[in-house]
Every structure is written in C-alpha cells, then in structure tokens.
Amino acid sequence: MSSDFSDATRDTYNPARPPPLNYTIKCNRRELAIIVFFTLIFAEAGVLPLILFYSIRWGAHLDNTKILAIITSLVGTYSGYKMARRSYYLFISDRGHQRRPLGASRFGPDAFTIQISLAMTGFFVPLIIGSSLNPGSVQTVAMSLPCFMICFCVPLLLTGLWPHKLKMPFRVSSMPPYTGLPPAVYTMVEDVVAVDGGGCVEFRQAWRIRYEHSAIMRRIVRVTSLWWGASGCLFAGAFIAIAWTTADDIGYGIGWGLPWLWAMVSGALTIGWVHRELEREQKMWADPDVHKIYSLHITQTVDEEKVAEEVNDYNERNV
Q: What is the pLDDT of residue 3?
C-alpha cells in the first residue's frame, strides 16, 4: 500500500540502520505490567459480565433488571482507576512535563486520552441506559463493547484512509492545530509508551524521528490503522445486528464475548506482521526508497529541542 505524503517528502540516503527507539518492555517489569493490565481489563469487561449474567440468570433466576444492575455496578472499576492514574501522570504529577506531548501545555491532553474517553463514553452509555430501563434491556447492554469498538476505531479508519490530510483546529497530542494528522496508530503508540509505559519525552522524540525517516515505518503505521479501524467498525456493526436479532442469551454472549476474540486475533496478526515488516526495514535500510523523510511539523519547546538533539546524537553514536 503506497502513501502520499505531499511535497513535504524528500529522498535521502543513509547506509546505516534505522534510528533506534531506545525503548524495551524487557526491563523494569514492564512486560509483567502489560500482562497484568490486559488480564484485569479482560476480567473486568469480558469474563466478569459473562459469568455474572449467566450464573445469576440460570442459577438465581433473577429478572433482567436486577442482573444488569449488578453487572453495571461492577464494570468500570479497574479501567476507571487506570484512567485516573493516567490523568495524574499527565496533569498533576510534578514530573508530568516529561510525559506530555511535545509542545503541549500542562493541561493539554494527549490524543489517546481523548480517543479512549470517547470510546469509554460509547461503552457506558448503552450499559447504563440498558440497565436503567424497567425491564432491563439485554440487547442494549450487549451493545456496550461493540459501541466501544466503533468509537475507538473510527479515528483509526479515517486517519488511515487520509494520512496527513485531516486537520483539527486544536492540538492533537504532539501535532499542532491545523497540522495534517498522521494515522492514529502513530499517536496511540507515542502516547501510550510515553505516559503509561514511562518512555517520557525521550520516546516521543525517538518515535518522531523513526517515523519521519522511514517509509516502511510509515507504511506499518498506516496499514495497522486501516486494519484495526476497518475490521473494528465492520465486526462491531455485525455484533450489534446479531444482538438485536437473536435471543437474549445468544445476543448477550455475542456482544460481550466476540469483541474480545476479534481483539485477540487482530493483536496476534498485527504482532506477527509488524515483526516481519521491521525485519524488512532492517534489511532494506540501505535502499534509497526506504529513506523518504516526511516532516511532521511538530513545534517544540527549547528543552524538547535539546532532547531531540540528544536523541539524534545517541542514534549517530550507535550506528
């Protein structure tokens, strides 16, 4: 899949290797933290709602209103804690400036905060409405995860279809207002690793440099944005249709179970494909076609420019 990066693209030649990101999950127990995070999220919004619904429905024989009220009261505890912790890192912590987007003010949210907030809204609206009705609507509650998928995946799809074409009148992570947005996977990787993964501004700079200097990396970001965006919207629509056209027991299981299957399969496919593409990038780095530099036009503070120089010096020393 080719990408059009307009007149900001130029060819260069560098016989060295790709600029390193200087970040790994194999230290500071980061790998364990990732496993714990996804396990608890899966338990909270996957295992728990399914177990509670069917065990209470078939065991205690309570009506839908009470069952859905119990589920709604428990879902969102861990994810809410993680969102609060993330907000603390960005807006309150004394070291928050080390994690914020490049050029952003103290209370400027990153793109992932906005995207996940919209997705969480899409998740909780049908959950709360469905459990508040009398009698409770199983079909409405079954839409929770599919609605999350749609709200989360639409930005991925749109920015993947039109990379660096869509513009916003406000800052989007490190991208200044009215700057063409890269595919949303770019800001997701930058924000999650910098804030939640502790990569801080050093990773934001290294990620920017890698993206700007590598045509293959830009292709990776765009293709993954398109895949997750298109498949997420398509499958979410199918899950919602099934939930409203089948029996309660089937529709609820589809709505709360199959989104996780989609995420796991997509994640496995993405990891395998990205690994192969990174190997190809490494082997083809001497090819001039790989070096089509695109400037993201990111504005930076004086301190951030110093960090960028340090990252560049690190890359040059480790060629």
A: 40
